[in-house]
Amino acid sequence: MILLPSLIYLSISGLAIFLSLAISEEIVQVFSRAIAICCFVLGLVSAPWSMLLLLAIPLIGFRVAERWQKTSG
Question: What is the DSSP string of the chain?
Fold first, then answer.
């Protein structure tokens, strides 16, 4: 149930970013970027699994890299 709102927020965020890049009017760009930031934050807040992934992937990557260096060196 948490996945659907997160995907909706992130989709709106992506659409707002596209809109800010496609339209040349400055006020539209400012508002669409603000909407993109708000929806991106709401998407991350509504999906705790994504926050865990953002924190876990770099840690796992560093550990795998350390082990690989120990075995190859």
Answer: --HHHHHHHHHHHHHHHHHHHH---HHHHHHHHHHHHHHHHHHHHH-HHHHHHHHHHHHHHHHHHHHHHHHH-
Prediction pTM value: 0.60
Decide if 62 contacts 21 (C-beta within 8 A): no
pLDDT single digits (tens) 18-54: 988 898 899 988 999 999 889 888 887 777 766 667 7
| CA quadruple 15, 45, 48, 20: dihedral, nearest 10 | 20
